[in-house]
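DM between two lab members

TW: hey, do you still have the EamA domain-containing membrane protein RarD entry open?
JB: yeah, one sec
JB: this one, 314 aa:
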Amino acid sequence: MSLSGRAGLGAGLSLTTAVLWGLLPIALKEVLVDMDAYTITFYRFFVSGVLLALWLGARGALPKPSRLKGASGALILVCVVGLLANYGFYLVALRHLDPRTAQTVIQLAPLLLLLGGVWLYKEPFGGAQLLGVLMLVLGLGLFFNERLVAIFTDVNGAGFGVALMVVAAVSWAGYALAQKKLLRALNSMQIMMLINLAGGLFFLTLAHPLQILALSGRELGWLVFCCLNTLVAYGAFAEALNHWEASKVSALLSIAPLLTFFFVAVLSPIMPFGFDTRQLPWLSYLGAGLVVLGSVVNALGSRLNRKRRGNIEV
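TW: and the structure you got?
JB:
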């Protein structure tokens, strides 16, 4: 795909997505006070699905039924199951974790996508990617530092939350790997519409929609933000890829965990949250930074490998 050459616009759209993803776990954590995870997920899927269907319908771009058969139908099913599991496990995990921890652990998702691409699609895996993987794993170890033993022994608290977040990361990687192949038959917005509508129908069976009446004005505002977040963030992400290289977009999106740390630090004094916002040990901040750096190296890995080979050839 040829790029528009408007790199500044691509960077701005990528930063918009990163900011929205950085705020998302904070918003979800606030809504979880008076609404269960299944109901939140229902509203997120349903609202995004309906808005996408209206938008695609107005443009005459709804997916044709003939494209939903055979292998494409199977891939859509994998995408639906993967993203539904990701949303569900992520939210349940948030009941046991603060947003900063959640955003750090979920960085396993792009790592698993990278490894899955190497395994399934025979994508290159060079020294830069290996360095990125090692940095990410070391960063997670530093992030949890003295809590590392508790993570493996606390089966009801943070340890359980981390385990669920790992499952959420695995589910997202499965969805992304399936979508990579499905993009040959449908575009990203059509895929997201189908996933969101299917997700809305599925989680309606588990949700309690009338819980929305118990929300305060502030919580309702956060819920609306959560519903629109996926639509706007993924739309900005898809459009960014038309203007900027995918590796650069992915690298900029990797700063989302740092933005979550930043928003918690800046907003908590003026907007008290319903979760623990105390300062973490300095090793945790170092570890989070290393996790982000590892994600950036992984995202830029192929470019770094090519540059290194070019320098060696010279």
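TW: got it. Residues 7-313 form one domain. Residues 310-314 have pLDDT under 50 and may be disordered.
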